[in-house]
Amino acid sequence: MAVSSSSWDLPLVAVCQVTSTPDKQQNFQACAELVREAARLGACLAFLPEAFDFIARDPAETLHLSEPLGGKLLGEYTQLARECGLWLSLGGFHERGQDWEQTQKIYNCHVLLNSKGSVVATYRKTHLCDVELPGQGPMRESNSTMPGPGLESPVSTPAGKIGLAICYDMRFPELSLALAQAGAEILTYPSAFGSVTGPAHWEVLLRARAIETQCYVVAAAQCGRHHEKRASYGHSMVVDPWGTVVARCSEGPGLCLARIDLSYLRQLRQHLPVFQHRRPDIYGSLGHPPS
């Protein structure tokens, strides 16, 4: 597609790729450096991956390192957003919720901060990753984490209306379709994808979600080795509503930038009006698991 001559007027977003460890302060320094660079480059919004706060060695360490939303770490990000004057998508925070005392479990919480550092939305991951794949250590997210209660309405930001999701959620197209129907123009899947599923599924799922919803898809990812037990695939990217990868990070920590062109998105939706052609009247009975 031709780029309009005024492309530099379009909102710029930054997608950050990091290697979180169990060291929270070191992780904050690494993320803050990328966010400051994003601000210097003119981004209005920076996306951080799932577990930007830390990746622990086991469920006990995860619970020990977790904090409430009102804790010290989120306070530091509030100041960072304010100092840099940009919005921050904090892709997956290990949150001690209101029910921490009773449950002793946390939420995987995607927090959206505006440029004044205020929390404008929180989405708690609804699909937990409990999988066992040959060649990749078993994942049992539910050992330490509770599923969130539901979806969040898309949020207006300087780049467009954002629908919040997290990592494993990308395998459930119903979630992305629900967000798109609620007005989302950008879907975001901050992630920590493994080394087996990454090469096989990462890009194809992100591109499929973009094509079927006619949304931009922004996926900030963890990369590299976090500690002796865990590594992530990386390949952070931005996909446009046509399904084209318009930005991607290279192998290590760093960032990539993309312009969000909402007039292109609207034009595409007009030319290929899939949402007008949907038949919700016939899909309902197929929503049950195979017997």
What is the residue-mean pLDDT, rounded to a whole number? 94
Question: Span from first to last CA?
Answer: 45 Å
Low-confidence stretches: 1-5
- What's the number of helices? 9
Query: What is the count of structural domains?
Result: 1
CATH superfamily: Carbon-nitrogen hydrolase
Question: How many DSSP E strands?
Answer: 16
Strand proportion, as a percent range, falls in: 25-35%
Q: What assembly state would you assign to the polypeptide chains in this entry?
A: single chain
Gross geometry: globular
Secondary-structure element order, N to C: EHEHHEHEEEEEEHEHEEEEEEHHH
Strand order, sheet with most strands:
5-4-3-2-1-16
CATH architecture: 4-Layer Sandwich
Give the CATH class. Alpha Beta
Q: Approximately how much helix is present in the residues?
A: 25-40%
Secondary structure class reads alpha/beta
Radius of gyration: 18 Å
Largest sheet: 6 strands, mixed
Record the SSE blueprint.
Blueprint: E1 12-17, H1 24-40, E2 45-48, H2 59-65, H3 72-84, E3 87-95, H4 100-103, E4 107-113, E5 119-124, E6 130-133, E7 136-140, E8 155-157, E9 160-164, H5 173-181, E10 186-188, H6 197-213, E11 216-219, E12 223-227, E13 230-233, E14 237-239, E15 245-248, E16 254-259, H7 262-271, H8 274-277, H9 280-283
Parallel strand pairs: 1-2, 2-3, 9-10, 10-11
Antiparallel strand pairs: 1-16, 3-4, 4-5, 6-7, 8-9, 11-14, 12-13, 14-15
GO molecular function, one term: deaminated glutathione amidase activity
Region (Disordered): 134-154
Enzyme class: hydrolase
